Amino acid sequence: MSARALELNGITKRFGALVANDDVTLTLGQGELLALLGENGAGKTTLMNILFGHYTADSGSVAAFGRTLPPGKPRAAIEAGIGMVHQHFALAANLSVIENVIAGTERLGALALNKRAARVKLAALSERFGLTVDPDARVGDLSVGERQRVEILKSLYRDARVLILDEPTAVLTHQEAERLYRTLRGMAEQGLSIIFISHKLHEVLAAADRVVVLRGGKVVAERKAGDTNREELAELMVGRRVARPHRDAQTPGAVALKADRVSVMSGGASLLSDVSFEVRAGETLGVIGVSGNGQSTLGRLVSGLVSPSSGSLDLFGHPVAQFSPRGFVEMGVGRIPEDRNADGAIGEMTIWENAVLERIGEKRFSSGGLVRRGPARAFAAEIIRRFDVRGGGPDTATRLLSGGNMQKLILGRNLITAPKILVAAQPTRGLDEGAVAAVHAEILAARRAGTAVLLISEDLDEVVALADRVQAIVKGRLSPPIPVSDADPRRLGLMMAGAWDEAA
Amino acid sequence: MRLERRAHVPLSLAIAAPIGAVVAALILAGLLIALAGVPVFEAYRRMLIGAFGSRLSISETLTRTTPLILTGLAAAVAFRSRVWNIGAEGQFYLGALATAALGSKLGLHLAPLVEIPILMLAGALAGALLLLVPLGLRLKFGVDEVVTTLLLNFVAVLFVSMMIEGPLKDPLAFGWPQSVPILADMALPKLLPRSRLHIGLLVAIGLALVLYFIQSRTRFGLEARAAGLNPQAARFAGVPIGSILVRVALISGGLAGLAGAIEVLGVKGYVTTDLSPGFGYTGVVVAMLAGLNPIGVIVAALFVATMFVGADGMSRAMGVPSFIADVIVALSLLTMLVALLLANYRVRR
Lengths: 504, 349
Prior knowledge:
The complex is a heterodimer of chains A (about 500) and B (about 350). By secondary structure, chain A is α/β, with parallel strands linked by helices. Chain A folds into two domains: about 5-240, Rossmann fold; about 255-345 and about 410-504, P-loop containing nucleotide triphosphate hydrolases (Rossmann fold), CATH 3.40.50.300. Chain A is about 35% helix and about 25% strand. In chain A, the strands form five sheets. In chain A, strands 13, 16, 19, 20, 21, 22 and 23 form a seven-stranded mixed β-sheet that branches. The two termini of chain A are about 50 Å apart. Chain B has a domain at about 65-290. Helix content of chain B is about 70%, strand content about 0%. Chain B has 13 helices and two strands; from the N terminus they run βαααααααααααααβ. Chain B has helices at about 10-35, 40-50, 55-80, 90-105, 110-140, 145-165, 200-215, 220-230, 230-235, 240-270, 280-290, 295-320, 325-345, and strands at about 1-5, 345-349. In chain B, α2 crosses α12. The mean pLDDT of chain B is about 90. Classes of the chains: A alpha/beta (about 500), B mainly alpha (about 350).
């Protein structure tokens, strides 16, 4: 780690009254894999945007390989060998991989793209760094993980020697994430310098050489990955001790939610087949699985959005005849959708409108076709107070809330009515450590109060912490349940691979 | 340079944006007027006189405002729920035709007090039904309603043409292609004697207020907005999207059809294929200028009508082609889109 690939010196950036970066100094050695850890809003992305020249810092300087970069010039950053992979990819879906990679590198006057030379260079890069992807595939047809590889190749093709990745695993499955980190490790060993931004502790510990923790725009700590642990990093990141809450043993009550050999077909494809499970009052059933194995359909089924093609779903001992979202809400099913932005809330509407939309038909929120805005606002204010939703009042646009606060709003509008069943799909996806602890505490409190909880999650730690029993979902099928006390990582891994007979 | 979304759009900015847009459009159009070799301020003064300079010109401007409020509301209501109804022109014509047919000597022959409301409803229904077809195609098969509503305009106008050349042709019109006229006592009462201004204006303003109330206070208004802003989340919350959009389409098409009905009952008395100088299409501009707000539609419609009526006066006095009105209205839509961007976003370096 002799040469310094990158040096950030005293970077300060203000947005109005908000200080996004406060005198941040940071160095990156050649061949180093550095993690930039921090909660949402800690200033990680701002810092990387300054480094790449998207923003101009109010003060401070950036130097690459010993030469100071002119501020606010992305092109200078590219020429100095810095490449950036954004959280939201900048790829043209209707072009091929190779076209995406070379777009922007050719001179404008050139009449035809020189694809042959590009192909040779791309193949060499793929080979060298283990980034396999078909150069002629249309980007729109690729999986998210493959698209990310294209983004990385794009930077490498421009001769990047420093690579910055913003939340690279936010959109990846567990397996894809592990593969990515193996690739990054290999790239670092070959001399590339890499910074990745993350708020996931286990990733940071497993993948990085060194960790820089950012909080409130300041660098609060710097650790070798080998010299620290999860608890310390969590505390540094949040600024106080955060312990994820624990589950206490309790005896479950009557069966509240039961699926008996339920199958869901759609357009000839089988989304769920022969799924059976039951959840009792005061009990949490965790459903684990690799993303894309039918979790979405399962969540939509128990939220009243899709109906079974065969089999039956019982709520409190009675089979559901009519599947409708409002019917489920009326029967006391609280529903946390897996994608809070797409399903859970309408950003352009106010907090109170989002709080009452799914129960707008209830007498207290509308009568004679007119919305009763007083009670609706009071309901929202009560959710904000009880569930500590920060960032606005009942009349604030919901899009202004952070992810964690939006999730607290969604959780709150369900739990405030003391539902008898709670369906929580990926309840902490994309949340930072503080928000995760808050959401877990609420789910545990609901279970303690006698709610039957169906937890669908890809986060094994979460399932082990919250669930009493675990079932795995693989290609639309559910494994038999095992008690969480028997759930060691090896066994869960086998179950998630579909080998539940061996796991038993 | 980059754009950042503002957390809150201050009220002052929300009001300044359309005013600034109109001023910018007038300045840009002023360049064209100057190119025509005419003093710009004098031309605009003539324009104002043309629109508001006399009792007659004021009544003409307001007469022109009336259908624009209704077609503007038709577009605003639909766009708010992301139903892209570009077919108000066709709906206008079908509404006009239904009203003329039922109100003529071939029609109902009821007492005017009873029949006039029925004729208006018939016009609205004709427009509403025409929009239900493309909406049904979208809900069932995902057919893009921008294309279908737009193309149905031509179908509707050709259908009207066929009817007024055929079964509904006025035999006393010296061979001109125009429909049988409505009975004399079916004409809408005048607001001002010895002018063309009729009570249709009050109907239009009243409907704008009713729509504002529906959108801001009713359950239907809330659900219709949710369905437009994020259909997936609305569906998750149990909003019956299909039936909400059907109701939105009935209102939108109905308003456009009503515009046609009122134009026949209040102004023309019969249907020709040049009954509308593009009221349906201009309604889209009115709705956008108003930021899809029903109250704003009244103001935007008045502005657009002022431009059209005023440009005629300017043209007579100064010799500038009256097409300048089209230029101003088109420019103001463009500047309005820019102004909205600047109001909602902050420019950062």
